Amino acid sequence: MMPRARFAFTVLCFGYAFLYVPIGLVMIYSFNASRLVTVWAGFSLHWWRTLFQNEAMLSAAWLSLRIALVSATLSAILGLAAGYVLARAPAFLGRTLFGSLVIAPMVMPEVVMGISMLLLFVGAERFLGGPDRGFLTIVIAHTTFSLSFVAIVVQARLADFDRSLEEAAMDLGATPWTTFRTITLPLIAPALGSGWLLAFTLSLDDLIMTQFVAGAETQTLPMRVYSSVRLGVDPQINVLATLVVVIAATTLAISGRLTRRR
Fold this sequence. Notes:
This is Putrescine transport system permease protein. With 262 residues, the chain is mostly helical. It has helices spanning 3-29, 46-51, 55-88, 95-107, 110-127, 135-159, 164-171, 176-204, 208-213, 221-229, 235-260.
């Protein structure tokens, strides 16, 4: 191996170690018998059993799961429509603005989006009488920034789509809707599924925007973890972090596999 290549490989190894060794240590210490999160006292499943008996944490996890499922589904539907328009619709007045608005949530700081969402919901509550901040407002907020990722994935898949299949179906008498339902949608389903999984992961671990739009009686799993850590790191957090890492890694792996499918 050439010296330059060896140096690049060494830097790459240090970079990955810096990112993933702390995560690996958290997962290892989730099986620690000690209450001190930095002192190894032997292998134990005590904190795993304790976490699954923690009603407050389980309730927050169930709420986050429901929010992620609903927001990911809405993001997939809206993102599919937006991606299809960006890839297939001919030039129309405001197309550049529409494309910019679709992509904006991906690059806009979450603090800015959280404040804007908060002002929107406060104004709606004042003039329209609702919705109250809670499950619905969190779903709306998560859908707003998640659909951008779905739209980009769908648009990229449609960019290299073989349109001769659609043309053949329409030549045989299929309507545009039938062609989309029977030809286009099944072929872009892997990309749509990948976008859904990505939106699900983003919603599941969002904290910043959720804090702005959640009500006083609504607490998602990331909010519960953040409030617990401020009072001191409990070993249950290591267990919870391990579960979140496994779920996120699994969904991202499935998402990547679906994206590579043809």
